[in-house]
Every structure is written in structure tokens, then in C-alpha cells.
Design goal:
The protein is built from four helices and eight strands. It is an alpha+beta fold. It has a single domain, classed as Alpha-Beta Plaits (2-Layer Sandwich), CATH 3.30.70.560. A hairpin with a 4-residue loop joins strand 6 and strand 7.
């Protein structure tokens, strides 16, 4: 991965999902792997949720959200997350293809940025039940009842 830039620790929110192979195990391993990144620890993780594909195809997804404490810069965290996806066998044959592991940087502190590689906060996080419900588990102050009502038509259930 090369040299990593660091800074004072920042709270970051990462959405995890998988719908190929043993999706629950892949998401759980993704949580472990996030905690093994340099200068990063998982402070809290949500329950697992099962969701229908949204603007995608294939089997149902297993989703979660992790609250991280990281000293990696946002671009370095994104690169590290993409390396974890690749290590998990993620392929990108077409947009929104089924995936072995998907990691999305939803928020990085209070950062607001837009570049070809990274937009923060994630531009569609508030439109997705598969982000909002697990996000409520780890950062309830970021999710309002109105937000949840707006995605009420998206099928989601806690995975047991």
C-alpha cells in the first residue's frame, strides 16, 4: 500500500455489504479486516441486516456499518478499503454487479469533499435503508425518523 499519510484520529463511518458466497461471513471478516488496518480501530459495529438489492441485481445482501477511529487520511482509508475488497475477491464487471465485499466510506468526521475518486459524505447514504438502519445502531444521532420513513419501501430485516 506504500506510505500512509496520517493525522489526528477521526471518526469514520463505513458501510459494508456482500451478496456472493457466504455473505454474513464476508461482512464479519470485513469488520475484522477494517480493525486491522494501520492506525485504525473499530469502535462499534452494527448488527447485520439482510436487504433486497437496491439499484442492483443478484441475491439479497448482508449489510452492516462500522464506526472507526482512524488516523489515516480519507484518501488513504479509501485505498485501504479498496485493497480489502480486492483481497476478498471483489470484481467490478459492471456497475452495481453482485459482490463478495463492498466497503463504502460514508462519512469521514465532518469532512465535505468532492473529487473524481471520493465524495464525502457519501452522496446517497440517506437514500438507502441498507445504510440508514445499521447506521442507526452505531450513530443514532445521524438518523432521523423522517429519514427512515423515506426508505420505508426498501425491504430490510435484522439478520439473526
Amino acid at each position: 500500500m506504500g506510505a500512509l499519510s496520517s493525522r489526528a484520529p477521526v471518526k469514520a463511518l463505513v458501510a459494508l455489504g456482500a451478496n456472493l458466497g457466504d455473505a454474513p461471513a464476508r461482512v464479519q471478516q470485513g469488520l475484522v479486516s477494517l480493525g486491522q488496518l494501520p492506525q485504525t480501530r473499530v469502535l462499534k459495529s452494527s448488527d447485520l441486516y439482510r436487504t433486497a438489492p437496491w439499484q442492483a441485481q443478484g441475491p439479497d445482501f448482508i449489510n452492516a456499518v462500522a464506526l472507526l477511529d482512524t488516523s489515516l487520511t480519507a484518501p488513504d482509508l479509501l485505498r485501504a478499503m479498496q485493497a480489502l475488497e480486492h483481497a476478498a475477491g471483489r470484481e467490478r464487471p459492471y456497475r452495481n454487479a453482485p459482490r463478495t465485499l463492498d466497503l463504502d466510506l460514508v462519512m469521514y468526521g465532518d469532512a465535505s469533499m468532492s473529487s473524481p475518486a471520493l465524495t464525502l459524505p457519501h452522496p446517497r447514504w440517506h437514500e438507502r435503508a441498507f445504510v440508514l438502519f445499521p447506521l442507526r445502531d452505531v450513530a443514532p444521532e445521524r438518523v432521523s425518523d423522517a429519514m427512515l420513513n423515506a426508505v420505508a419501501d426498501q425491504r430490510i430485516e435484522r439478520w439473526v
